[in-house]
Amino acid sequence: MLSPDEQSLLAIDFCGMSFASPLVLLSGCVGFGEEYTRVRGFSNRDVGAVCLKGTTLEPRLGNRPHRVCETPMGMLNAIGLQNPGTGVVINEILPGLDFSETRFIANLSGSTIEEYREVARQFDDSPIDAMEINISCPNVKEGGVVFGNDPEMSARVVAACREVTDKPLITKLSPNQTDIAANARRCIEAGTDAFAVINTLMGMAVDIESR
């Protein structure tokens, strides 16, 4: 726990929001913001914001095991966006969070532009402070291409979310594209306020001994 004087030295302004610290707990690391509150000595007051786990319109069970693979070069994971859906998050999880402690940022995921728009609309009518758009999801209506790997498709997602909310939008850029700067420019034009750089790098591990 930081002293009040120490905390004041870390305070910043981000997208019109006051953050007690520039440190943000990233999406996927702390579930929906309540896990670390059970750890002795930790307080959400010590971080500037908590970014909630990726949330889709409907519940998702995620991928079948195994979801994590250890390799000599690091860890691979394929969680599959497991989450209970916006209804549960907004009506059951958010009421249990202490919004006086820190800022809470929703993480939006979807398989269509319409789904992104609806998830953003529902979170707009909630106490959430800002929204992070996970554009590294496949577009099921247009051949399964990842939204975030195409600048125009990325911009369409951002624009759809901007239509239904005035809250700060943070677009999480995909690293798996040929020109991330061009993508960023289109997202700015579409209405994003900031970027999270970067989302997951693609990886693969092949066990040559087992087959």
What does this 3D model show about the protein?
The protein has a domain at 52-196: Alpha-Beta Barrel (TIM Barrel), CATH 3.20.20.70. It has helices spanning 4-10, 86-93, 113-124, 151-162, 180-190; strands spanning 12-14, 17-19, 24-25, 49-55, 68-71, 74-77, 103-108, 130-134, 169-172, 194-196. By secondary structure, the protein is α/β, with parallel strands linked by helices. The relative contact order is 0.13. It starts with a helix and ends in a 15-residue tail after the last strand. The protein contains 5 helices and 10 strands, in the order αββββββαβαβαβαβ.
Average pLDDT, to the nearest integer? 93
The main sheet comes to: 6 strands, parallel
Backbone shape: globular
Low-confidence stretches: none
SSE string, helices as H and strands as E? HEEEEEEHEHEHEHE
- Using only CA atoms, what is the Rg? 18 Å
Total number of beta strands: 10
Percent of sequence in beta strands? 15-25%
CATH superfamily of the domain at 52-196: Aldolase class I
Q: Please give the count of helices.
A: 5
**Terminal Cα span:** 51 Å
CATH topology group of the domain at 52-196: TIM Barrel
Portion of residues within helices? 10-25%
Structural class from helices and strands?
alpha/beta
CATH architecture of the domain at 52-196: Alpha-Beta Barrel
Strand order of the largest sheet: 3-4-7-8-9-10
* CATH class annotation of the domain at 52-196: Alpha Beta
SSE blueprint:
Blueprint: H1 4-10, E1 12-14, E2 17-19, E3 24-25, E4 49-55, E5 68-71, E6 74-77, H2 86-93, E7 103-108, H3 113-124, E8 130-134, H4 151-162, E9 169-172, H5 180-190, E10 194-196
Parallel strand pairs: 3-4, 4-7, 7-8, 8-9, 9-10
Antiparallel strand pairs: 1-2, 5-6
Helix pairs in contact: 3-4, 4-5
